[in-house]
Design brief:
Largest interface: A-B, 53 and 53 residues
Largest sheet of chain A: none
Radius of gyration of chain A: 18 Å
Number of helices of chain A: 10
Helix content of chain A: over 70%
Oligomer: homodimer
Structural class of chain A: mainly alpha
Order of helices and strands of chain A: HHHHHHHHHH
CATH topology of the domain at 58-189 in chain A: Tetracycline Repressor, domain 2
Strand content of chain A: under 5%
CATH architecture of the domain at 58-189 in chain A: Orthogonal Bundle
Number of strands of chain A: 0
Chain lengths: 190, 190
DNA sequence: GTCTATAGGGGGATAGAC
DNA sequence: GTCTATCCCCCTATAGAC
């Protein structure tokens, strides 16, 4: 049982990593198995189909984000530091072997995903946007953020730019990614 | 010979469409062949390997962009209308069955692409960024654009957001994409 | 230029032994 | 829980006829 839990967790960890590295269609049970030192069939014991594995990966990601934003260490921060924390997630993702945003990776393959993964992807994106929007509203009300228009639209712009910048950085390097983050920060101050 | 040119062109058209729809690893020679009403091997006659097909698709895309921006109908426009034209490319892409930016699609699969396609992807992205940067500089100098910081960084932010927004729209719908475009436009006016 | 036929590999998934 | 063995499908690519 202990072994099972460890293996299951290791599969999820590796699957998440591969998903952000190669995309959903870019990794296989064989990849996970070989890197884990087990056989193909062992993965199928824990996740009968790839769709189930994918869904579990996204669900865990969503749960983790939910835990973070409701954790007092993030929840009680001033808006500006909240946003810095959010940006740092993406900076860490970039630093981790040039991975991309989980949501962005899935959206890119959206047209070939099974329905359950599309739903999970949409739910994740909605949660990211919702938190961003609220944080931006808070900051605007507190006078620490300055931007024109609807906080929902500004949230969509920031999230899009972060997802896009992680991808763009694969061709253009980390400097370009960091430039996008800094430009986003700077524009909120003016 | 006429037949050949038509087939070659039809392959490129369909390949480009599939690339923006399903990604490079998401379409096959069989897909192209069946939609074209020819056989697998016919595609290989025109493009011996998939890498050659991919490279030709990107090259043609780059050539087309180059033609456009040096066309007097775009070249002689005021900066604001130039940028509107650029945005309209992405809006058209979104309207075309929810396709995504060619560069964004390729960057997402960057880690599994052969070297020649990585180079092409990088070159395309550089050309998009370079044109955007110059156009933003022109507009700033002319007083029609207002933004803080380096035009190169602003160009990276805008391009990232457009690529990201096309992907985000797959999960969240066209409204969110249009919101990102409008937010970008609005922020340049303030 | 396009066809038929086929090689050779990788993918997801399952049955049954241990 | 993990293994071996295997099935079946799709993929890229090639050889040779027409």
């Amino acid at each position: 049982m202990v072994r099972s839990k460890n293996t299951r967790r290791a599969i999820l960890d590796l699957g998440e990593s591969l998903l952000q590295d190669q995309g959903f269609n870019g990794f296989s049970y064989a990849h996970i198995a070989s890197q884990l030192g087990v056989k193909n069939a062992a993965i199928h014991y824990h996740f009968p189909a790839k769709e189930a594995l994918g869904s579990a990966i996204i669900q865990r990601y969503r749960d983790r984000f939910d835990l973070w934003i409701n954790n007092s260490r993030v929840k009680d921060l001033p808006p500006q530091e909240k946003l810095d924390w959010f940006f740092s997630i993406y900076t860490t993702t970039r630093a981790d072997n040039g991975k991309v945003c989980l949501a962005g990776s899935l959206e890119n393959e959206f047209n070939s995903l099974p329905e359950s993964l599309r739903k999970q992807t949409k739910a994740l994106t909605e949660e990211l946007l919702a938190w961003l929007q609220v944080t931006l509203s808070e900051g605007k009300a507190a006078g620490s953020f300055h931007f024109a228009g609807d906080p929902a639209d500004k949230a969509a712009l920031i999230l899009s730019s972060l997802q896009g910048a992680l991808q763009l950085a694969r061709a253009m390097g980390t400097k370009k990614f960091l430039a996008v983050v800094e430009q986003n920060k700077q524009e909120l101050l003016v």
